[in-house]
From TrEMBL:
<dbReference type="InterPro" id="IPR018931">
    <property type="entry name" value="DUF2520"/>
</dbReference>
<protein>
    <submittedName>
        <fullName>DUF2520 domain-containing protein</fullName>
    </submittedName>
</protein>
<feature type="domain" description="Putative oxidoreductase/dehydrogenase Rossmann-like">
    <location>
        <begin position="9"/>
        <end position="134"/>
    </location>
</feature>
<feature type="compositionally biased region" description="Gly residues">
    <location>
        <begin position="304"/>
        <end position="313"/>
    </location>
</feature>
<feature type="domain" description="DUF2520">
    <location>
        <begin position="151"/>
        <end position="277"/>
    </location>
</feature>
<dbReference type="Pfam" id="PF10728">
    <property type="entry name" value="DUF2520"/>
</dbReference>
<dbReference type="InterPro" id="IPR019665">
    <property type="entry name" value="OxRdtase/DH_put_Rossmann_dom"/>
</dbReference>
<dbReference type="InterPro" id="IPR037108">
    <property type="entry name" value="TM1727-like_C_sf"/>
</dbReference>
<dbReference type="InterPro" id="IPR008927">
    <property type="entry name" value="6-PGluconate_DH-like_C_sf"/>
</dbReference>
<dbReference type="InterPro" id="IPR036291">
    <property type="entry name" value="NAD(P)-bd_dom_sf"/>
</dbReference>
<dbReference type="Pfam" id="PF10727">
    <property type="entry name" value="Rossmann-like"/>
</dbReference>
<feature type="region of interest" description="Disordered">
    <location>
        <begin position="302"/>
        <end position="338"/>
    </location>
</feature>
Length: 338
């Protein structure tokens, strides 16, 4: 392997080290099996019931037979259990009770919520339990295999299997991140808060822009959200911008009033996120305490303070509705007119 000219160029020519099976041909399992195939392993079986599952398996794992879950385990040395979180405990218990799990068989699940405790029935049957959760959103298409390059995986395993777990992640192109068993629920909650809720926020923002007459909401939001995400990852709370972080109670009250008129279903989410933003801005010294009182009053009751309606800066300019100083003293991603 240290001499590139001797390494086979075709992945199919590499020695197949493990026979890989997939139980649950959702969006995740076929992509992981396909990436393991690129590393020299051999997918041998997949289970899937719905038409969508069959199509995904055919697209990502062509010529791999679709069989029952028990048959997947019978043919495999490495089994990927890629089913919804709530279905995982029952699946593991059922496979163990029916004798499908063999001693020495690697049993891997991809749930973010669970560690290896959920695989205890398989462990009692002699299986080797691993929890490998890719911190990635999947589409069920071949592009997912490419996205695994550099993707972080939340890894939990018995200490004696830690190196094996990390090696599998690296072979899939990922970066292993060790998560203690007890921290798995918090780890998963953090990812859901950041990724799943982001989709909801972006979709809602595009819908509101459309109602405001914007012809291409995605084109308008793309650069703004890209800059905001980059700043947040680089600077954390220091990247907070906008009327809440500035303490513009009048602007926030106007937002709430408009949302109540045009999108009442969005009000609760706006207020919840604004309160969380205000708390973080206060804690990090971005929101001035003297401006916080009126703002928090608006967030509690949704009405503007007396005489409220925006704030004029002491430099003889009026802040734009979304802009403020960025974390390094430059304009933030929303842009002030100065």
């Amino acid at each position: 392997m240290n001499t590139p000219h001797t390494e086979p160029q075709n992945p199919a020519d590499r020695p197949a080290r493990l026979a890989v099976g997939v139980v649950g041909a959702g969006r995740v399992g076929p992509a992981l099996a396909a990436s393991l195939q690129l590393a020299g392993h051999r997918p041998v079986a997949v289970s899937g019931v719905s038409d969508a599952s069959v199509r995904r398996a055919a697209a990502l794992l062509p010529d791999v037979p679709i069989v029952s879950p028990a048959d997947v385990l019978a043919r495999s040395e490495l089994v990927l259990l890629t089913v919804p979180d709530d279905a995982l405990p029952g699946l593991v218990e059922g496979l163990a009770e029916t004798g499908a799990v063999r001693p020495g068989q690697l049993i891997v699940h991809t749930s973010g919520r669970y560690g290896v405790g959920v695989l205890e029935p398989a462990l009692r049957a002699g299986g080797l339990p691993l929890a490998l959760h890719p911190a990635m959103t999947f589409t069920g298409t071949p592009v997912d295999v490419q996205r695994l390059a550099g993707c972080s995986f939340g890894v939990t395993a018995p200490e004696e299997l830690r190196l094996a777990a990390e090696a599998l992640v690296i072979e899939m192109g990922g970066e292993p991140e060790w998560i203690e068993e007890s921290a798995r629920p918090l780890y998963h909650a953090a990812l859901a808060l950041g990724a799943n809720h982001l989709v909801t926020l972006v979709a809602e923002a595009m819908e509101l822009l459309g109602r405001a007459g914007v012809g291409a909401p995605d084109r308008m939001l793309g650069p703004l959200l890209g800059a905001a995400l980059d700043n947040a990852l680089r600077s954390g709370d220091a990247a907070l911008t906008g009327p809440v972080a500035r303490g513009d109670a009048g602007t926030v009250a106007a937002h709430v009033a408009e949302l109540r008129k045009h999108a009442p279903g969005a009000v609760a989410g706006y207020l919840a996120m604004a309160r969380a933003t205000a708390d973080r801005a206060l804690a990090h010294g971005l929101l001035k305490p003297e401006l916080a009182e009126d703002l928090l009053g608006v967030l509690a009751g949704g009405t503007a303070p007396a005489g409220g309606g925006g704030r004029t800066g002491g430099e003889g300019r009026t802040d734009g509705p979304d802009g403020t100083d960025g974390p390094d003293g430059t304009d933030g991603p929303d842009g002030d007119a100065r």
